[in-house]
Design a protein that fits this description.
With 240 residues, this protein is an all-alpha fold. It has one domain: Orthogonal Bundle (Lysozyme), CATH 1.10.530. The chain is globular and about 40 Å long.
Length: 240
């Protein structure tokens, strides 16, 4: 009789403790969405490229304010997810991972890559430009084929550019090529991405500084960083 009573008491206590733990702690998390595994951002590359893009304007900028934020990879993921159309949201993780990996490969700021994508295609992987440019980074098929062969990137005709990840790899390889060709002068290589290196060299010969396209990219760049810095502040305050 005593044994039976003891077992009943233990059962009640166990059930009560389980209920308390369930309601007050995070032991049970299957009801919460799980963030996808995404590699971290190369902070050294991000900061170095941000300084190249912003010059003296880097100091005190939103790009500087988020230095050392380990959650930047997930913040970038959230931006990609938010900007993609519903039918493409399933690609958010692979697109984010490609942006981060290829940015690190070429020592670029992944937020800059998001700004270029926003400027070029508004994150539409299937959009086609006026001159036949395709995909997220709006690369022409003939340029893409040449870059793919030069950088040993898989190429299966222009349909390759409709694959978001392949498009980003080719687009960033091309940006890297232009960056080298114009000695890291950001206004020149960013503008050349839009108008072509030949036209850029002609403007240089005339001592004309291109403004329009670079300004659009940098406007999106600043907007992304402003939002990321604001989110980072909110997250820090909440954590404290």
């Amino acid at each position: 009789m005593k044994t039976k009573h003891l077992k009943s008491t233990l059962a009640v206590v166990t059930a009560t403790l389980t209920l308390v733990l369930f309601n007050n702690f995070d032991f049970f998390s299957w009801h919460k969405p799980v963030s996808p595994s995404i590699e971290g951002v190369s902070e050294a590359s991000r900061v170095s490229h941000a300084k190249e893009l912003l010059g003296r304007g880097y100091f005190g900028s939103d790009a500087q304010k988020i230095e050392g934020r380990k959650s930047l990879n997930y913040m970038i993921y959230s931006k990609v997810q938010a900007n993609l159309a519903p039918q493409w949201k399933g690609h958010a993780r692979s697109i984010t991972r490609t942006v981060i990996a290829e940015s690190a490969k070429y020592h670029m700021d992944p937020v800059f890559v998001l700004a270029v994508i926003k400027t070029e295609s508004k994150f539409n992987p299937l959009t086609v430009g006026r001159y036949g440019e395709i995909g997220l980074m709006q690369v022409k098929p003939d340029t893409a084929e040449w870059i793919a062969k030069k950088f040993k990137i898989g190429w299966n005709g222009k349909k390759t550019l409709q694959n978001p990840e392949a498009n980003i790899k080719i687009g960033l390889a091309y940006m890297n090529y232009l960056r080298t060709k114009f000695n890291g002068k950001s206004v020149r290589y960013v503008s050349a991405y839009n108008m072509g290196p030949g036209n850029m060299f002609r403007l240089i010969a005339k001592n004309v500084k291109p403004v329009e396209y670079n300004s659009r990219v940098m406007k999106n760049y600043h907007a992304f960083y402003s939002n990321l810095a604001a989110r980072s502040t909110v997250t820090t305050v909440a954590a404290n």
